[in-house]
Prior knowledge:
The chain is built from 18 helices and 16 strands. With about 425 residues, the chain is α/β, with parallel strands linked by helices. The protein has 2 domains: about 15-85 and about 135-245 and about 425-435, Glycogen Phosphorylase B (Rossmann fold, 3-Layer(aba) Sandwich); about 250-420, Rossmann fold, CATH 3.40.50.2000.
Amino acid sequence: MASTNEDNRSRDDSVDRPLRVCFVVLDAYPAIDSRVSGGIGGIETRSWLLARALSQQADIEVSFLVRTSETILKFEYDGVQIVPVYDRFAEIRNTVSRSVKRKQRFPWLSFKECRIELLWQLPVLALYEPFRPVFHAKSDPVQPVKLFSEMNTDILACFGVNVVSAAVIASAKAAGKKSVLFIASDIDLDERYTAESDYVNIYHSPAKACHYSVENADQVIVQTPEQLKMLEENFGRSGELMGNPIDLEEWDHRLESSKLPAEVEGFDRYVLWVGRAERNQKQPQLMPELARLCPDQTFLMIMNPGDEQLAAEVRQSAPANLKIIDRVPFPDMPAVYRHAVALVNTSDSEGFPNTFLQAAASGVPVASFKVCEEFLEASKAGVCAQGSMEQLGGLVQEISIDKSNGNADSARDYICQHHDIRNSVSEVAKLLKRL
Length: 435
């Protein structure tokens, strides 16, 4: 079939201009601008590092779509164009979603906890519902969404397997664009994600949407060899293995120059925990028990917003040697690591914790309850307790006594070789151009 003039113009345009890539990570605005309130997780940190580094490539233009309930502060950061989608009650909706679950039949809602605030929050959200931005179709999560289909980009990149990723990938497919799916956790590759399954994961995404995301993304990027194996065994497709990145040059600069935030001033030589208040994955509820197992150690938890009921339980059961704060701006985190004797991780499952890279870059050994044993052994960045709280407590005590951390240089060299952002961005850029 002969090509039309419009086809030829489109092809000429794609040759003469830079490649356009849009990252869709709805809750990443606090990671982009430290003045914005909100929790920062691994997805937000990883996606912004990659977007910012890619924007320095002369032949790639990068945009970043975020959801915000506040007026946008800037429309460009480090060469990345910010695409804000205003959702006035996004924070309230996130809070309510942790207390209330939608049901497919009457009475339509089930309550995981009863809070007095729900008496006004639920009516407000119901009134605003017709006006809120649409990030996925409620009737069918694998349908295209106008917001994503009309993005002025060649490639749409999304992180994690969920209903929003399904909508992004469906929209890219419908609009003739390419899509890239970055796996964010082992949960993203659950064998229960099939087209016929009624299973719904802990983040309220149905198996159908999760299966569609993995099956239909033009490219899937995994974090670990184990995820690569899961992708092949559970979904029958191949992917690209790329370790999570860290900007060592920036981190080193902040290690020297950043100051401890006011909430942490006066503390020194503490055992650090960083994560969201998530019961099934991050398991912060284990920290009070660990603090009691090590009564001569000081523990500092930076527990980002999440499950409010769980966060309250952890605070109420915390012994005197466990201090808990909600949030530290990302630019101040190197100073927090600088004063840490160890980083502890209590997760039951992970993708790959960015905190492990930050600890290794700071010369801080890791004590892991259960995850990433292979990485810790290969990098010499720390040790794994293999799911035993007693063993985890013993490891924390050993690390605290041995202040020399003789493996710090080896761990640092490993991170530099396998996870430095300059190597990661080169690999991602090549992959995007191949697409």
